[in-house]
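Dear support,

I submitted the protein below through the web form. The confirmation email said the job was done, but the results page showed an empty box. After a refresh the structure appeared. I'm attaching both so you can tell me whether what I see now is the final result or a partial one.
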Amino acid sequence: MAKPDALSKPRLALDHGGTLVCVIEMSGSSWVVAATVPGVDRRPLQNPPVNPARLLEQVERWRREAARAGRPITRTVVAYESGRDGFWLARLLQGHGIEAYVIHASSVAVSREQRRAKTDRLDTEMLMRALLGWLRGEPGHCRMVAIPTVAQEDARRPGRARDGLVTDRTRLTNTIKAELALWGIRGFKPGLRKAADHLEALRTADGEPLPPSTLARLHRLLERRRLVGEPIAAIERDAAPAVERDPTGPNALVLLLAKITGSGLETAQMLVHEVLSRNLRDRRAVARYPGLTGTPDESGSRRRDKGIGKAGNPRVRCGMVQLAWRFLMVQPDAALARWYRERTVAARGSVRKTLIVALARKLLVALWSYAAAGVVPEGVVLKAA
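What the results page shows now:
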């Protein structure tokens, strides 16, 4: 089993004399590849096309160049920033025996000059400094992103696709209501199955029917909303059979979390695939992953907090805050629910909103302990078998 939080530092000590280190600045049309080649004084820089075969050929040429300089390569490290290209290149490089890393883009320190120069060459130098510092074991240079397998990445697709579709449906619903509000019409429900059939009967504040252009636009919006709703229903319909077909591995954790009253299958899948299946070090790492920890601002005698960090996974953060509100309703006798009520008996709304984030953080840690060790949170009621 891999050591928890293995990405916090390199597995091997850096041997400058036998390690080829490369960084890639990726874009849609070309790549910029910089390297530190043992035995070569210059810092080579190449602009290969977006072609992994050409990249592997260039890495092999640098290996031969180091061998000719009397420094045979025993270790090859390649890294690039996380972004649109995802992890396919890292998996491909690992398949060719290359040690590949994906650097968290927000963890690399940049110049604070008002107008700092930014080019691909300068970006590769910045990435190289961060990567070499991390390989030497020095803390604070950068953070690495865990590279998921194809199966792990594919398992996240349905939930993330559903979230995007739900956002689109909400946007269309709000647009329809805003369009009707222009004519003084309230209370229309776009979510009804036959909502389009009721448009003709609507009357403006003056008692007149809707104008033809507005009516046509509303019909188009309702049709788009219906089309968006179909894949949402399909994803939700296929979720339970997919888990039941293979109740092992991550799906076993999904079924375990779904036993908690108030936690549905979709919430359980989101938590397992996004955070609980990760090899996180401890409870602090679990709370920090979705960005539910505070952001202190201290200087001299000044002490204040700027709120939650929001530097983690936004999907987990949003889902946990929603689950925390639901937890208060369906698990009133749980220890965490009592903890929240004791601190918000006479509190204002802003205090309750602040403490719900603390409850979400505590609840996530409790669910992590439940998934890892089977420890049921105190007072939590499970669904009947």
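Response: this is the final, complete result; the empty box was a page-load delay. The chain has a mean pLDDT of 90.
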